[in-house]
Amino acid sequence: MKYAVKSAIKSGLDSFGIEIKRNRGGGVGELVSFLENIRARGFIPRGIVDVGANRGAWTRLALSIFPNASVIMIEPQDEMEPYLSKLCSSLPTCRYIKAGAGRKPGELVQTIWSDLNGSSFLPPVDRSQLGSGKQRKTQIVTIDSVLAETYPGFLPDLVKLDIQGFELEALSGAQNTTFGRTELFILETSLFSFLPRQPLTREVISFMFDRGYELYDITGYQRRPFDGALGQVDLAFVKSKGRFRSEANW
């Protein structure tokens, strides 16, 4: 029945030269709606941690909705320094740490993609790529050290991580300062292992559940160009017994 209805609608639209195509991704619109919704229900984060800040677009968007929040941006790529430094100069509530976030402090090799958006610590080290600059040694900090030592007293009510499959490694270095304190996490997850050792969405959900957080919403998604299958989803996690789950009413 549903198929017949869809076919009839499609045939009708075809007669007018209108073609329906599947949306390849849902990003900014979903995120804005989500953040505006939680603001309307009284969630006003005092502090936001943006891990994988890139050029700062996500931070700018978040601050357009929560203008009084303080933000710590963590981003390792050299190319992003001018953007983030300028952002911090224009918005004094923003801080910027030029490093990657990981399980422990030290140094890791990052692979730099040409678009600078998909750069990751997951690909194996290749000496030729190190020599060409496509891979580079990068300083690693832990979120725990940033919040406990660099900015003690910072209140991480909202933590976002978009670091190309390295999210669980970074969260493993945030055990003491975020879990139980942070009300809301927004994490990029993947339904396929696009990179070596990349955790799947189900593994991220399990990781967060074990630490007292439940899946709450989907704030964005991307379909992979290969076949249009759902490839990545940005998931919101909230405390299992926190403010967002205090009511079970429909």
Report on this structure.
The chain is α/β, with parallel strands linked by helices. It has a domain at 27-98 and 153-240: Vaccinia Virus protein VP39 (Rossmann fold, 3-Layer(aba) Sandwich), CATH 3.40.50.150. It is built from eight helices and eleven strands. The model is unreliable at 1-10 (pLDDT under 50).
Keywords:
250 residues; alpha/beta; Rossmann fold; eight-stranded mixed β-sheet; three-stranded mixed β-sheet; globular; disordered N terminus
Largest sheet: 8 strands, mixed
What's the shape?
globular
CATH class of the domain at 27-98 and 153-240: Alpha Beta
| Cα gyration radius (Å) | 20 Å
Taken in chain order, the helices and strands follow as HEHEHEHEEEHEHEHEHEE
Report strand order across the widest sheet.
Answer: 1-10-11-9-8-2-3-4
Helical residues, percent: 25-40%
CATH fold assignment of the domain at 27-98 and 153-240: Rossmann fold
Helix and strand composition category = alpha/beta
Name the CATH superfamily assignment of the domain at 27-98 and 153-240.
Vaccinia Virus protein VP39
Let me know the number of strands: 11
Question: Would you identify the regions where 5 or more consecutive residues have pLDDT less than 50?
Answer: 1-10
Average pLDDT for all residues: 90
User: What is the distance, rounded to the nearest whole angstrom, between the alpha carbons of the first and last residues?
Assistant: 28 Å
Strand content: 25-35%
Count of helices?
8
CATH architecture type of the domain at 27-98 and 153-240: 3-Layer(aba) Sandwich
